[in-house]
Amino acid sequence: MTIIELIKQPWPWYVAGPIIGLMVPTLLIFGNKTFGISSSLRHVCAACLPAKIPFFQYDWKKEIWNLFFVFGIFLGGIITAIYFKNDAAVVVDSNLVAELSGYGIADFSGLVPADIFSWASLATPRGFILMVIGGFLVGFGTRYAGGCTSGHAIMGLSNLQLPSLIATISFMAGGFIMANLILPFILSL
Amino acid sequence: MTINKKYNNTDFEVRSLDAICKNQETVETPMWHNVKYLLFGIAFGIVLIKSEVVSWFRIQEMFRLQSFHMFGVIGSAVVVGALSVFLIKKLKIKSIQGEEIILPEKTFNKGQIYGGLIFGFGWAMTGACPGPLFAQLGYGAMATAVTILMAIAGTWVYGLIREKLPA
Question: Do B154 and A42 lie within an 8 Å CB cutoff?
């Protein structure tokens, strides 16, 4: 198996997790930056539509490194699609496959289910709720919580911050409630 | 360049630390220096996709406790991150600019609970947190553009009404 073929396989958690963890010291040592991503959304607001809202009145150009970082994540996605793409469908638990097929989700080839996340399904109730309302909740919730999975769960917990532990537990609790109790109704629409 | 610049708070408000990605660097660097963050972002984006943590299906699996994968990724990332932070503090490692590395302390507010729950809902719905959204779009999930725009809208609305929210 060549190196490229090896890279194309899905990476196990014990390879990916430590590399993600190394982002923390890398950003600290290379620029005294604390790892985090959701603030980029705030910088976009401050840059594009501050609308005299105090929360967006700050020098976003000073934080421009964060926009370079997220643009890099976007490019990383493109590079992976061109050079390291694995055409096999994601292998998930058989119980999940069975549950999702009950909602008409049969295509497991993409990162997101093509049966729901597409331009066409934007006009359907479940597509609208998951993409439009779901996206809104991600942006609103991360800023209200003061960070996302990277800023709180990885950076904050790495620095042993109690508020980040509280935030991380809340993320997980919200996810469990949504996935198990509410999502079945949305997917049935 | 002033000494107290690093304590300058771009938020100037009560919840002073609710912008996470703090720029603690006091040395003025030319714009092209930001290219290093572009490279780190590219590496991060590749890892996110190849480890499938940006997969909507993997997120569903995690929240149904059907797989250890996501917990393994986040858990081992935290262990490596915590060990790194410990060593940086212990050995007083400086940044490449020769500065003392500063890790802001976070203060508790109710937003971490309410906002955290709201984000958790969104995470399970979209299968993505903010970083993965950009990776998904790059990988070709074009409809994610809608999710990103709505996430920006959500951030904007938060900024608009934050004074009225419990803190």
Answer: no
Evaluate if residue A188 carries a pLDDT over 50: yes
Q: Do B66 and A154 touch (CB under 8 A)?
A: no
Instruction: Report the number of distinct structural domains present in chain A.
Output: 2
Which residues of chain B have a CB within 8 Å of the CB of A47? none
Backbone angles phi, psi at B23, to 5 degrees: -100, 105
Domain that holds residue A172: 116-189
Inter-chain touch B77–A154, beta carbons under 8 Å: yes
Whether A17 is in a domain gets the answer yes
Domain identity same for A6 and A72: yes
- Residue A28 falls within a domain, yes or no? yes
Give per-residue pLDDT as tens, B95-138.
998 889 988 888 899 999 999 999 999 999 999 999 999 999 99
Q: Does B146 touch chain A (CB under 8 A)?
A: yes
Which residue, of A28, A63, A85, is where some domain finishes? A85
> Are A36 and A66 in contact, with CB atoms under 8 Å apart?
yes
Please report how many Cα atoms fall inside a 13 Å half-sphere around the Cα of residue A183, on the Cβ side. 30
Q: What ipTM, to 2 d.p.?
A: 0.94
Residue A48 has pLDDT above 70, yes or no: yes
Total residues belonging to chain B: 167
